[in-house]
Structure formats: structure tokens, C-alpha cells
Design a protein that fits this description.
The chain is of the alpha+beta class. The protein is built from ten helices and five strands. The chain is globular.
């Protein structure tokens, strides 16, 4: 293990000890970016759909990367969580990805992003979520770098244990920062899913699928579709 990865893990552990619980994800995200030398990072809770929740995003590019994956329901972040394995996309601009909707959307909306890496976050044997890393250069992380990133992801999982009460409090808006963005993009989406499902007699899965289809068809974000449903409940999205 390199000294840089060990120092990053130590910094993350210190954040978990010293920071207020609601500040931990944001500060951990910043530590991951600096320690691994990437341009952006996100932390996501990936339980059963539609209970997925963004925990923290380092910047707007990282936030949009997560929003794209949540809308099209595919991408390295989701695959890493589902498979429990690290997923690497070394050259988004030229390589064909296993996720056609994700690949096309990222090339259109985030042309500056050249590589993405998804790492599962384990709580024991259970995958609770994933860490997404993005870079503006291709082949940002080699095989040895990814080993270091996996070590750092273990430290992230341990740090988030101190926030487990908030992770599991699905009945309240998350306290993560930036709170307004996280709430608008994830917590309110879950509320909209429930409203649409109740109104149209759909399962939550089918309601979310309909919202995703509308977002993809119109080119609007899922947050926009959510706002329509919550702001004007009598009408379909």
C-alpha cells in the first residue's frame, strides 16, 4: 500500500472522528479527490430502487454524472454496486461502453469527462453503495492506482458508519450537503414516485420507469420531472 493511499485513509478516518455527521460525506468526497488525484467524486447509497440516494458530490460535473446514471439506470456506479466489483472506464470518448444510454448521455452532457471508475462500498459482506471517480484525462488510474482506490473506498465505508442513522432514516430529507441539491435530485424523486404510483395505480418501479422514460424522451432531468409531479399532482409527467 502506498503512503499516499494510507495518508488518504487516515484523513478520511479523522474526518469521521472530528466532523459533524452531516459534514462527513462532503469532506470525505474532498479527501478522496485530493488523495487519489481525480477531478471529481461522488458517494451514493444504492439500495433497492427507488431508494437510491446521492450522499455527496464533489462538484457539478460529479452531480450530473450521478443524475445521468440515475435517469438511464445504467453506468459504472450502478454496475460496481450490483456486481460488488470495481468497474473501470478508461476512455469514455473513444471506447464503446457496456451501457449505450449512459455512454451517449455522458458524451453529450459531459464531454470534458474522459474516464470514470466505480468502486463498491462494503458494509461487511453487503454492498451498501459505491464511490464514483471521474477524471478529465483518459486512463487516469492504472491497475495499481485502482488497488489504492479500493483501499480508500474501504476507509470511506468505515467513515460513513458514523452516519448510519441518517443513511437509514428514509422518512426524512437527507442532511447531506449541498442539502438543496441532494433533496431535489433524490429525496423528492422518491416522493414523486410514490405520488405517481398512487395516482395511476402503478408499482413504484413502474412509476419510476415512466418518469425516467419522460426525462429521456424530453431531454429534461429527472429532477425537472419530479418538480412537475410534486408541483402539479393532477397531471401526468
Amino acid at each position: 500500500m502506498t503512503s499516499r493511499a494510507m495518508e488518504t485513509a487516515r484523513l478520511i478516518a479523522k474526518v469521521a472522528t472530528d466532523a459533524h455527521a452531516k459534514e462527513i460525506p462532503r469532506q470525505v468526497c474532498a479527501a478522496v479527490c485530493e488523495g487519489l488525484g481525480v477531478d471529481g467524486a461522488t458517494l451514493s447509497l444504492l439500495t433497492d430502487t427507488p431508494s437510491r440516494q446521492l450522499i455527496a458530490a464533489s462538484d457539478n460535473d460529479a452531480l450530473l454524472l450521478e443524475e445521468i446514471q440515475f435517469t438511464v439506470l445504467e453506468g459504472p456506479c450502478l454496475s460496481a454496486a450490483y456486481r460488488g466489483e470495481t468497474v473501470a472506464v478508461d476512455d469514455l470518448r473513444h471506447d464503446v461502453t457496456p451501457w449505450p444510454l449512459f455512454g451517449a448521455s455522458v458524451r453529450e452532457k459531459l464531454p470534458q469527462v474522459a474516464s470514470v471508475y466505480g468502486l463498491p462500498m462494503f458494509f461487511g459482506d453487503y454492498v451498501l453503495g459505491s464511490v464514483d471517480l471521474l477524471a478529465r484525462r483518459t486512463h487516469a488510474l492504472n491497475a495499481r492506482d485502482l488497488e489504492q482506490a479500493e483501499y480508500v473506498a474501504e476507509a470511506v465505508s468505515a467513515a460513513l458508519m458514523s452516519t448510519r442513522d441518517m443513511l437509514l432514516s428514509g422518512g426524512r430529507p437527507p442532511a447531506w450537503e449541498p442539502e438543496e441539491i441532494v433533496r431535489a435530485h433524490w429525496f423528492d424523486t422518491a416522493r414523486a414516485v410514490g405520488a405517481l404510483a398512487s395516482r395511476q395505480g402503478l408499482t413504484p418501479e413502474n412509476a419510476l420507469a415512466r418518469m425516467r422514460a419522460e426525462a429521456f424522451r424530453t431531454g429534461r432531468s429527472l429532477a425537472d420531472i419530479t418538480a412537475d409531479i410534486l408541483g402539479d399532482p393532477p397531471h401526468d409527467p
